[in-house]
Amino acid sequence: MYAQMVKTDAKRVKRPEEMSEQERAFQARIDRGEKIEPKDWMPEDYRRTLIRQIGQHAHSEIVGQLPEGNWITRAPSLQRKAILLAKVQDEAGHGLYLYSAAETLGISRDELIAMLHSGRMKYSSIFNYPTLTWADIGAVGWLVDGAAIMNQVPLCRASYGPYSRAMVRICKEESFHQRQGFEILLVLSKGSAAQRRMCQDAIDRWWWPSVMMFGPNDEASPHSAQSMQWKIKRFSNDDLRQRFIDVCAEQVKLLGMRLPDRELKWNEERQHYDHGPIDWSEFYNVINGNGPCNKERLAVRVQAHEEGAWVREAALAHVEKKRRRYA
Ligand code: BYC
Questions:
Q1: Residues forming a β-bridge with 274
Q2: Distance, CA 57 to ligand 1 centroid (Å)?
């Protein structure tokens, strides 16, 4: 059900002698570190890869509002409510910049949304898990936004101009989100025994799904080689995942909590943390539409879109009225 409609054909990277003259000139621009802009010539697969990635990213921001939105009415104080409300609004804004960046590639927001709603485009696996307690809002901020930043800071240097520029502001906001999540957990970690248990339980449930956010291992990632040659991706899935694990393994100590991985251990030789095996069957199960909340998430988005139709119609009618008045 969740197979991407925006398929790309680049299963292996072309050698220079297999490229057309135009493709070689394009790759040379990328290699020189030039930005590609919407009106520049680009290979069809480059365009489709970007639509797939930016579209999936935009959808993730929009669907990503749902797990946290679930706690706006139940936040423990007025201040927490105001902060969470602002954060969820930020995610909506990120979705809108990203849809705009995708539109520069010749696809409309309506088309992208229709593909999301019909299951032909993906959104991040992470948003198919439920937020069961207030500590989950802390864990989402610390781990999910933390993973998002690790993956997205390099995207500020992606070769496609509109995407890279959108990412600059998004990353600034994400880093605030990450800190507010950590602070929620820090408060709980210093609280009562029940609060500390709630904090640990949230970390236990969000850790592995966050580790999976970076996508499949490098050898199982069909798009990485080409995306890295085109400098859309600047680091591999496994490299970013390792950096994330290294950072979290240290930060969790400040909380006096533990990550749910018995094999997590500093490796002096590698200068990285070793970690236990990732359950990829869970990841593929979730991205194939069978995670704990996939059906609910999509149903809520479709309903919101349908119920908002009158707003879109009213806005269009207003534009048309103004156009006629000043014609
Ligand atoms: N979930 O060849 P690969 C956020 C798919 S943060 C679902 O490695 P690629 C937020 C992939 O699409 C989250 N699907 O692909 C944070 C591909 O499927 P198709 C959003 C995944 O594209 C807080 C297949 O697996 N961030 O928004 O080179 C609050 C093979 O993978 C996932 C972004 O989107 C996954 N986790 O690399 C609110 C960042 N991982 O097309 C919101 C931008 C992989 O073959 N995206 N797949 O059917 C990227 O950096 C890259 O697209 C990825 C995947 C690293 C995610």
A1: 265
A2: 7
Q: What is the pTM of this model?
A: 0.94
Q: What is the pLDDT of residues 91-127, one digit of tens each?
A: 999 999 999 999 999 999 999 999 999 999 999 999 9
Please report the pLDDT score of residue 134 as a whole number: 98
Give the Å distance between the CA of 216 and the centre of ligand 1.
9
Mutate which of 53, 121, 152 for ligand 1? The one with the most ligand atoms within 8 Å of its CB, which is 53
The answer to whether the CB of 227 is under 6 A from ligand 1 is yes
φ and ψ at 68, to 5 degrees?
Answer: -80, -35
- C-beta of residue 8 within 8 angstroms of C-beta of residue 128: no
Distance in angstroms (rounded) separating the CA atoms of residues 312 and 27: 41
pLDDT 10s digits, 282-302:
999 999 999 999 999 999 999
| The pairing of beta strand 272-274 with beta strand 265-267 | antiparallel
Closest CA to 274 of 266, 282, 262: 266
Which of 124, 164, 278 to mutate for ligand 1's pocket (most ligand atoms within 8 Å of CB)?
124
